[in-house]
Amino acid sequence: MKAHLSRRYHFSASHRLHSEEFDEVKNYEVFGKCNNPHGHGHNYTVQVTVSGQVDPVTGMVCNLADLDGFARKNIVERFDYTNLNTLECFAEKVSTTENLSIEIYRIFKDFTAAHVERVHVEETSNNSFDYAGNENPMPGTI
Amino acid sequence: MIFLTRKAEFSSAHFYWNDAWSPDENERVFGKCANRNGHGHNYTLEVTVAGDVDPVSGFVVDLKQLKNILEREVIGVYDHRHLNLEVPEFAKAIPTTENIAIAVWNRLDNKIPNAKLHRVRVYEMPDLFADYYGEL
Hints:
CATH class of chain B: Alpha Beta
Strand order of the largest sheet of chain B: 3-1-2-4-5
Oligomer: heterodimer
CATH architecture of chain B: 2-Layer Sandwich
Helix content of chain B: 25-40%
Helix content of chain A: 25-40%
Structural class of chain B: alpha+beta
Shape of chain A: elongated
Mean pLDDT of chain B: 95
C-alpha cells in the first residue's frame, strides 16, 4: 500500500534579489525592495513530501529519523543562518524562492529511503512555492 | 515547472438561498446559513499559478504584480461586501465556498501574465476549504 508522508523543516537566511544582467535601475524596477543592497531575510519553511510502500513490519514509508537526519545535514545546516547569495548554488542564479525550491528538490533527490514527490517552500506566510521536478504532477496533488 | 501560491484575505457577508425552493425547503437544506439577514466570514484565498522560472529574473511571476491582480480582480470586489447582494456572479449562484472558488477562478483565468492559473483554494474558515482546478 503506497502512502505519502510530508515533513516540515525551518531555516532562517538572508538574501538579495539582484541580476548581473540588469543595470542598477532595471534591478530596482524588477526586484523592488528585494534589491536592497544590504539584503533582507526570511524564516523559510520547507515541506518535503515522500512516498513509498508502507513497510508491513514497521508500518512506515520511511524512518522519520533518517529523513530528519538527511534534512538536518543537507538542508538546515546548509542554509540556516547563511546569506543565500554567498552560496555556490546561487553564484549564477538569483536567490528567488523559485530557484531555492529547485535546489532543495535537487538536494532531496539524493535521499534514497523513499521517493521524493515534491518540495514546498514557504518564504512568508503569504508566499509559497512548489516544485515536483519537470514532470507534470498528477492533477490535484499540488 | 514551478507552482507559486499567493495568499490574500477578504471578509464578506452572505446567506444560502435557492429561490426555486420554499422557505421550509431552504431551511431544511441550508440550516442556519439560510438566515436571510446574512452572516459573515473571514475568507482566505490561495491562488496557485504554474510556470517556468525566467532564467534572468529567477521569477515565475512578479509577486507584487500578482498581488495587485488579486486585489483588483477579487479582493477589491469581495472584501467588506455582501456577496449575494453586491457581487454580480452571486445574483444567481449561491455563494457557497465551492461557488466562490469557481467564481474566483473565472475572474483570474487568463489574467496572469507568463503563468497559468493552476488552483484556486478558498477557506471559509480554517477547518473548511474548497479547491477548484478549472475543468479537468
